[in-house]
Amino acid sequence: MKKYRIGIVGATGAVGQEIIHLLEKREFPVAEARLLASSRSAGREIQACGNLEVVKETNSDSFKNLDIAIFSAGSQNTVTFADAARKSDCVVIDNSSAFRMDKDVPLVIPEINGDALESHKGIIANPNCSTAVALMGLYPLHKRFGLKRFFASTYQAVSGAGAEGVTELENQVKNQISNEPSPPPPDSDPVFQHPIAFNLIPHIDDFREDGYTKEELKMRNETRKILGIPSIQVSCTCVRVPVLRAHSISINAEFDSPVNVPDARTTLENFEGVELWDLPNALRYPMPINYSEKELCGVGRLRLDHGFSNGLAFWVVGDQLWKGAALNAVQIAEELISRKCLKNL
Questions:
Q1: I need a labelling partner for 297 at 20 to 30 A (CA). Which of 43, 50, 264, 323 fits?
Q2: Domain range summary for the chain, segments of one domain joined by +
Q3: Which one from 90, 238, 247, 297 is the annotated catalytic residue?
Q4: What is 4-127+325-338's CATH topology?
Q5: Do residues 261 and 171 make contact, with C-beta atoms less than 8 angstroms apart?
Q6: Are 114 and 339 within 8 A, CB to CB?
C-alpha cells in the first residue's frame, strides 16, 4: 500500500491533537507525520503515527516533499502559508474560515459533495463545525424531499473555543460549587464575555449591523455553497452552552415535496455517517455526552413540523472536534486518495 507524507499545522492544538489521533485510529497510510506549530511549541516531542516526532516551527519551507498538509492554526496562518504549500505541490486541507467562500476553493463534506474534490486547485476548505453537523442531518432529507429553507438553533460546547474554554468552564463550576469568586485567569482575558457555568450565552463571534453574528451567517453561506443552492433561506441562532464537547442543533426544515416520518427515518438510517437514535418514549435521543469522540452524527426527535405544510423538526448532535473539524479533514484526505486527486497519484 502506498503511504503518504502528511503535515499537520497547529499540531499541538486541540484539533491538531485530534487529527493525529484519528490518523492513527483510522489507520491512514502515513509515511511521515510532520508536526508544525508556532515558535512557542517548536522543540516539543509528540508521539504521532508510530514515531516520536519533534514539533517544528511553521515556515514557507515546511511543506517540501509533503503530499498533504492539514491546517488547524487559524485563518492568519492559512493565509500566510497556504500558497507556499501549494507551490510545493502539497495539497492544503484547511480548518479555518480563510478560504471557505472562495469560489475557486471547494468546501467539502465527503459524504455530501466529495465530487467537488476533483476540481480542487491545491486548497480545500473544511466547513464550520455547526454547518458540518447540521448538514449531516439535513442533506439526506434534502435528497429525498428537496430542501426549501430551514431554521437552526445551535447549542455549542465550550471546547469549540479551544482548550481554554474547557478550562474556564471547569474552573467556574468548581468555584460556584465551593461558593468562591472566580479568580481572573492568569495573564489572559476571559474566553467568554459572560460566566458560562450554569449559563447560556446567546451569541458566538462578532455581531453584524443586522443583529446576526458571523457564526450564524456561516450556517447560511456555507450551506448554500455545499448544497449548490444559492437561494436557500436559512435563519440561525448560535448559543454557547456549558457542555464540554459535541455540538447540538435544533432544526426546523421545510421541503418542496410532501414529507412523512417513516420515509424520513428510512432515509436517515441509510445515510453514511448518520445514526438515527430516535426512541423518545424510551428517552433515547442524541445527547452530547453520548456523541463525544464518536465518528457518527446522531439524529433524533424526528417529527412533522406544525409550522410548515411540508416540514420536519429534528435534533442533530455531533462532535465538533471530530466531524466538525479533525475527522472531516482526515476524511477529505482519504477521499483525495480514493479519487486519485493528488498530483503524485
A1: 50
A2: 4-127+325-338, 131-320
A3: 247
A4: Rossmann fold (3.40.50)
A5: no
A6: yes
Q: What is the pLDDT of residue 345?
A: 46
Distant-in-sequence, close-in-space partners of 258: CB < 8 Å, separation ≥ 6: 145, 310
pTM: 0.94
* pLDDT confidence bin for 180, thresholds 50/70/90: confident
Chain centroid to CA 64: how far?
27
Alpha carbon distances (Å) from 57 to 10, 41, 44, 50, 309: 10, 7, 10, 21, 56
Would you say the C-alpha torsion 329, 337, 105, 148 has a positive or negative sign? negative
Domain 131-320 matching CATH 3.40.50.150: the answer reads: no
Residue 129 is a catalytic residue: yes
Cell of 117: 474534490
- State yes or no: is 203 an active-site residue: no
Q: Pick the catalytic residue: 49, 90, 120, 129?
A: 129
